[in-house]
Amino acid sequence: MSISLRWAAAVALLLSAGRAWAQPAIDHHMHVHSPAILEILPAYCASPMRKNPCDQRFVAPLTAADALKAMDGAGIRQGWLMSTAYLAESPLAAPLPDAANVVRQANEFTVGLARSRPDRFAAFVSVNPTAPDALAEIARWKGDRAVTGLKLHLTNSGVDLRDPEEVAKLAAVFRAASANGWTIMIHMRTGAADYGARDVRVFLDQVLPAAGDQPVVIAHAAGWGGIDAVTLDALGAFADALRRDPRLGRNLRFDLAQVFTDRATPEDRARTAGLIRRIGPDHFVAGSDWPFSGDLKTYFATAYAGPELTPAEWAKILE
């Protein structure tokens, strides 16, 4: 039986049996846009600087109630809500005259959701790390127990990991988040067509040390969803670095949000699984990038059930 057929059979079995190991207690990567961000999305999505149109799931005016319904249907106890405030200062769209205020409103919205349901939501504020107000926005939340961490999105923020000045700003943001005692979630892939091992080396040498002892989670297994050559190159560079110096991985994790999609080839799925084993399944966590995932129960039962990894390995990731 081919890998794809065995994967389909495993999925069918999981959906019928409701295996507990396909249901994570925590979804480490979710989004609910604030009203302030929903207002600017049409202009952002229409920007000629964007390479692709916005996914309709991305622009849908979904609410915290929608997120809770999706979580309840999948048996998920807690969702990490990533603010999308960084979109207000994205160079992929025309500059906003009041961008810093939109960032503030968007972060206040996400933190408000965590305050209203601390049993279900963990809030991650966000900034563009190269924006002039980034450090002030991080400082504004210092000591607020409703904030769990910081979300950074290097693609949407236009960060170039080969620009020493921008790398220094990113490291400063890491230091500020660490001083606040936060977990840092970073969409590390940049817009560089040849993104990969070179960028990972810069990150490990010049940025990660600034996090100190705080946890750092690399979103999408160092890519931006799906599996392609540059994502595998980047994840492979992490595997090589952690083999040379396991201490680098002490507080480093990777989420698998939207990595094992139905567009991934069996070969790419197998190569990704091999890298997960090299790094160690205990360094990976479950995430969906909801609402991109669609129905969470179906998503986790399919994306986290392929034959590339054993049930025990998936169980470790889904803990």
Please name the defining characteristics of this protein.
globular, disordered N terminus, alpha/beta, 319 residues, eight-stranded parallel beta sheet, 44% helix, 12% strand
How would you sum up this structure, described in words?
This protein has 319 residues and is an alpha/beta fold. The chain has a single domain (3-12, 27-317), classed as TIM Barrel (Alpha-Beta Barrel). The protein is 44% helix and 12% strand. The chain has helices at residues 3-17, 35-46, 56-59, 64-74, 99-116, 134-140, 164-179, 197-207, 229-244, 266-279, 296-303, 311-317; strands at residues 26-30, 78-82, 121-126, 147-153, 183-187, 216-218, 252-255, 284-285. Helix 5 (99-116) links the parallel strand 2 (78-82) and strand 3. Helix 6 runs parallel beside helix 7 and helix 9 runs parallel beside helix 10 (266-279). The longest helix is centred in the middle third of the chain and has 18 residues, at 99-116. Residues 1-21 have low confidence and may be disordered.
Q: Give the CA-based shape.
A: globular
Please give the largest β-sheet: 8 strands, parallel
Order of helices and strands: HEHHHEHEHEHEHEHEHEHH
Count of the separate structural domains: 1
Output the structural class. Answer: alpha/beta
Give the DSSP E fraction (strand runs of 2 or more residues): 5-15%
What is the level 1 CATH name?
A: Alpha Beta
What is the H level of CATH, i.e. the homologous superfamily?
Metal-dependent hydrolases
Distance between the termini: 29 Å
Query: Which fold name fills CATH's third level, the topology?
Result: TIM Barrel
Segments where pLDDT lies below 50 for 5+ residues?
A: 1-21
Rg, alpha carbons? 19 Å
Count of discrete alpha- or pi-helical segments spanning 4 or more residues: 12
Order of neighbouring strands in the sheet with most strands: 1-2-3-4-5-6-7-8
Q: Architecture in CATH?
A: Alpha-Beta Barrel
Total beta strands: 8
**Overall mean pLDDT score?**
93
Helix content: 40-55%
